[in-house]
Design goal:
- The protein is α+β, with helices and mostly antiparallel strands.
- It is built from 16 helices and 14 strands.
- The strands form 4 sheets. The chain has a 5-stranded antiparallel β-sheet.
- The radius of gyration is 22 Å and the shape is globular.
Length: 368
């Protein structure tokens, strides 16, 4: 720990929680448009089609799913593999800049498949793949089959991974549209958006954007979010422009001097978050939103559950089934909390499923 950090003020867990919720538009709903919110949040994780819609419903005032669908159809936002090697919904600008920024992570991912790519010229693979998907969008199966004609001895899955890692492939619509999603078909971001990729942004600019949406945060937090390494030197370079704190464990946290850091006692209304929500995946230390005794309770294997926030922290799971929104709290809620959760659930259902009859029910307390 540096001398400067040793003297830095301490931010308690609740203070960190409120600051992060504020940056994530979860303390009070924002009037931002869907596209502006996607930009502010630096994208929304989107392995599945529906999570980005529920993520924005929890964050935006007046949100309607059709608005995000319309932005996809006009190509203002797209679905593309970027951060942490996962599909994200990004603005067109971020798709063309963040993807080059995290290319080093894609190169590392590709290294795990080298054995299945023996004898494969990756530059030629990228050129062939680009020609194929820009001729017309292709499914991964179609792309694999075409590449196998060039390299019949290669591992088929490794070939498709190589195409995804070497090219910025976007999922074309109707995939990702609300209520009209189709199979995954791919083309390049440049072809879909009608303009060339931008140079990778300086890491400095992205660090500042990350802190705007996720701060205060440590270097390791930022690296976890981006799937990158060796960002310490970037934070060191930005040090004169940042404010430094410590968490209760002494970990060094950075933030923008004028960023909002609400009081730890600021009310935090209940929120229904989708699986793979940004809030739960963008820090190395997730204790600011996940209590220590609930660590691991929001996942099973590679499957994430939909989570409920009460008083700003993960407090249960939820699911939609048989005409009901079923809430499964991890501990008993007070009557006031149940009323607030019910009201928020009814609001979410009105936004996401207007005109459908759906009750809010409380299930058995979820057990480990």
């Amino acid at each position: 720990m540096t001398k400067t950090t040793a003297a830095a003020p301490v931010l308690g867990t609740r203070a960190l929680n409120r600051a992060t919720l504020g940056r994530q538009l979860l303390l009070r709903r924002s009037p931002l448009s869907a596209t502006a919110a996607v930009e502010h949040l630096l994208g929304l994780q989107a392995q599945n089609v529906k999570p980005p819609y529920y993520a924005l419903a929890a964050r935006l005032d007046g949100f309607r799913p059709e608005v995000l669908s319309a932005a996809m159809e006009t190509r203002d936002v797209v679905r593309i593999v970027t951060l942490r090697s996962t599909i994200h919904t990004h603005t067109a600008d971020d798709a063309l800049t963040l993807r080059p920024l995290v290319q080093a992570a894609r190169d590392r991912e590709l290294g795990h498949f080298r054995k299945g790519l023996t004898g494969v010229d990756l530059d030629r693979l990228a050129a062939i793949s680009r020609e194929l998907v820009e001729e017309e969008p292709r499914t991964m199966k179609q792309l694999r089959e075409s590449l196998l004609t060039e390299w019949p001895d290669a591992d088929p899955f490794a070939l498709s991974v190589a195409a995804r890692c070497t090219l910025p492939l976007v999922q074309v619509t109707p995939r990702g549209l609300w209520g009209r999603s189709g199979q995954v078909a791919l083309t390049t971001a440049e072809h879909w958006l009608g303009r060339p990729a931008e140079p990778a942004p300086a890491p400095d600019a992205t660090v500042l954007r990350y802190l705007t949406a996720f701060g205060p945060a440590s270097v390791k937090d930022m690296q976890t979010w981006a799937g990158l390494t060796r960002l310490r030197e970037v934070f060191d370079r930005l040090w004169p422009r940042l404010t430094v704190f410590r968490d209760e464990n002494g970990t060094e946290l950075f933030d923008l001097p004028d960023a909002p850091r609400p009081d730890a006692d600021t009310p935090a209304p209940p929120r229904f978050l989708p699986e793979f929500d940004n809030l739960l995946l963008s820090h190395a230390d997730r204790s600011r939103v996940v209590p220590a005794d609930l660590k691991g309770r929001t996942w099973r294997g590679n499957q994430a559950y939909r989570t409920l926030l009460v008083d700003g922290f993960v407090a249960g799971l939820w699911k939609l089934e048989e005409g009901a929104l079923t809430v499964e709290p991890f501990a008993r809620l007070t009557r006031a909390q149940r009323d607030e959760v019910t009201a928020e659930g009814e609001r979410m259902l009105t936004v996401m499923h207007p005109g459908e009859a759906c009750d809010v029910r409380f299930g058995t307390v979820a057990q480990p």
